[in-house]
Design brief:
Elements lengths: L2 H62 L9
């Protein structure tokens, strides 16, 4: 192959690699956005589970102490 042919082939390879790199960068940004949304959903779910645990623990405590007089206002 000639020097010019080798140079053109090298330039083509570089251009293709740049395109692949751009696609990988876009995919990484999309993945980052999805991960951020997942983290937000996880936090919201954790808060909901905590509230449910509090309700369950409160009900369990109320059942354990039925002899306690109620304070009515």
């Amino acid at each position: 192959m000639s020097v010019v042919g080798d140079a053109l082939k090298a330039m083509r390879t570089v251009l293709l690699m740049q395109e692949d790199l751009r696609l990988m960068k876009d995919a990484a940004h999309a993945q980052s956005d999805r991960l951020a949304r997942l983290a937000e959903a996880h936090g919201a779910l954790r808060d909901r589970v905590s509230r449910l645990e509090g309700i369950i623990e409160g009900a369990a405590m109320a059942r354990r102490m039925p002899d306690q007089p109620r304070i009515e206002g």
